[in-house]
């Protein structure tokens, strides 16, 4: 019968090994306490014709499924004429050589290249590697990853730890991600970045260091709209800003808004998931005034797709200059 978790959990200290029943030679040997064991597979080496025992870790840390998977891979090597223990040693030695040759900068750039396709925000992807180039590579970029200690990362972060705490925290997290990647590749034993904060001064609490942008009291918004946005020469930035205020949308969502997202009949603007920060489709109800703004933009017909095109027919930047020369920063209102 095949080994089950119930049988494995009932293995007794000093008892007999229990055969897996699925992979030939795989057995769970009793461990140092009840319910714990050690995975071993007995096989005959195809290279020396000698019997050998290959270990696959301990139960329950290594599950039955994981042990079977590893043992099956080992059996495949045996069938191909390779001793799996010798192959594992050779692979470990190769990884050790890789670790000795791999610098932190090379590891970081490889991690960045591997993960960049999964990041939706191109700005974040660029900033991710730029911060390491600025603050970390000059200190430890050419150091081998297997020789890096917590104090090395602490010294790289120290110049910005108190002066730029937000940046320092992000850089620390990115260093940790790189070293986690190295650990997963078995290039290092453990990630040293987790204890870096123990070697540095305590950072001020977030509430003590965050400086919020000044905000307009909501009671003053109607006066602002009437006295600033609807007076003087009309401009694209004034129109976008009023629309932004009325819909509580982000500037990027408004600037890149397209006509196929708008349903004037049902008074709904549907922002697709790929344009939302949360990657989830969002429906925005449109008030009477927002409908008026859209109808005016529709009549202007300056672009077949964009609702608020720039003079060049592109998505306006987040800092748009109206004809009066006054700069209105759309991102300021978030």
Layout of SSEs?
Layout: H1 5-9, E1 18-19, E2 26-30, E3 37-44, E4 51-59, H2 64-79, H3 84-101, H4 104-115, H5 122-135, H6 137-140, H7 150-161, H8 165-184, H9 206-209, H10 221-229, H11 236-247, H12 251-255, E5 262-263, E6 268-271, E7 282-285, H13 288-300, E8 319-320, E9 328-329
Antiparallel strand pairs: 1-2, 2-3, 3-4, 5-6, 6-7, 8-9
Task: Please summarize what this structure is.
With 334 residues, the protein is α+β, with helices and mostly antiparallel strands.
Number of strands: 9
- Rg result: 31 Å
Please describe the biggest sheet, giving its number of strands, its sense, and whether it closes into a barrel: 4 strands, antiparallel
User: Based on helices, strands and strand pairing, what is the structural class?
Assistant: alpha+beta
Average residue-wise pLDDT: 88
Provide the CATH topology of the largest domain. hpI Integrase, Chain A
Could you estimate the helical fraction of the residues in percent? 40-55%
In CATH, the architecture of the largest domain is Orthogonal Bundle
Q: Secondary-structure element sequence?
A: HEEEEHHHHHHHHHHHEEEHEE
Q: What's the CATH C level of the largest domain?
A: Mainly Alpha
Strands across the major sheet, in which order?
Answer: 1-2-3-4
Low-confidence stretches: 320-334
- Number of domains as seen in the coordinates: 3
Count of helix runs = 13
Shape descriptor: elongated
| Percent range for β-strand residues | 5-15%
């Amino acid at each position: 019968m095949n080994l089950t978790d119930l049988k494995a959990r009932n293995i007794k200290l000093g008892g007999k090994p229990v055969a897996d029943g699925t992979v030939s030679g795989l057995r769970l040997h009793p461990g140092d306490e009840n319910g714990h064991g050690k995975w071993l597979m007995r096989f005959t080496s195809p290279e020396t014709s000698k019997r050998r025992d290959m270990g696959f870790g301990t139960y329950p840390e290594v599950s039955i499924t994981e042990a079977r998977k590893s043992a099956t891979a080992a059996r495949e090597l045996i069938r191909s004429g390779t001793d799996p223990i010798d192959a594992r040693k050779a692979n470990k030695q190769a990884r050790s050589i890789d670790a000795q040759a791999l610098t932190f900068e090379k590891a970081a750039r490889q991690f960045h290249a591997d993960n960049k396709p999964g990041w939706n925000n191109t700005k974040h992807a660029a900033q991710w590697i730029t911060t390491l180039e600025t603050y970390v590579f000059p200190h430890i970029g050419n150091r081998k990853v297997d020789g890096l200690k917590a104090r090395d990362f602490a010294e790289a972060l120290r110049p910005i730890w108190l002066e730029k705490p937000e940046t320092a925290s992000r850089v620390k997290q990115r260093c940790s991600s790189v070293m986690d990647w190295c650990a997963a590749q078995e290039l290092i034993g453990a990630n040293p970045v987790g204890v870096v904060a123990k070697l540095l001064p305590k950072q001020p609490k977030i509430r003590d260091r965050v400086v919020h942008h000044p905000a307009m009291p909501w009671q003053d918004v109607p006066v602002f709209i009437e006295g600033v946005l609807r007076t003087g020469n009309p401009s694209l930035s004034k129109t976008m800003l009023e629309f932004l205020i009325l819909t509580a949308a982000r500037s990027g969502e408004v600037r890149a808004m397209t006509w196929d997202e708008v349903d004037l009949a049902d008074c709904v603007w549907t922002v697709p998931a790929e344009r939302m920060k949360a990657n989830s489709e969002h429906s925005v109800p449109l008030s009477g005034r927002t409908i008026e703004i859209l109808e005016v933009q529709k009549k202007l017909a300056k672009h077949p797709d964009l609702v608020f095109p720039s003079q060049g027919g592109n998505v306006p930047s987040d800092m748009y200059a109206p004809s009066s020369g006054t700069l209105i920063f759309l991102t300021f209102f978030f």
